[in-house]
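Annotated sample (chain length 180).
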Amino acid sequence: MTNSVGSLFLGLLITFLGMALMFYIIKSWYKNSEFTPLSFIIGGVLFLILAFHAIIICGAMTIKSYGDDMEALVGGYVENLSDDTVLSQADTQAILDRMRDDLPLVGHYADYANFSGHTPLDIAESMNDEMQHFMNEYIVKHLLWTLFFIIVGAFCIIKTMEKGRGYGGRKVYTRAEEQF
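Output written by the structure step:
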């Protein structure tokens, strides 16, 4: 439970800091433009989307850090079985269900296991390797979606900005417009 809450808070913090940085960068690039209420509404929607992705990425990274713990748990679950026992899909699903009870965060990411044909000697390493591989793919997929939403969101925010007087409140004149 504490790792779930930690992933939640870390994901929200990363999203908040990222959104603040994005608005700062946009404003520094478009100094003579002002954000409109629609810019902030788009920013709020973008915050929710990015927060979702950041939270689940943080959770996936937490699960990756469980590698040794998962191997030890699975090894403990099968230690009483004969080394030449061939595990079925139902056996490996029962192992995953037990792991989900011991590591609740795993339950949010993995709900099906089919490691039939493995033995108690190699099931722990196989399940850990597969979980690590799955989490790597999961993180990359959500990072790519995050990048997509950042690009689209920044574009939409820029398009909703109004041309204004910018910082300082004074107009800059070209030579042809100089007033005497």
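Annotation: The helical segments are 2-29, 37-65, 67-78, 89-102, 123-159.
Annotation: Strands lie at 33-34, 162-163.
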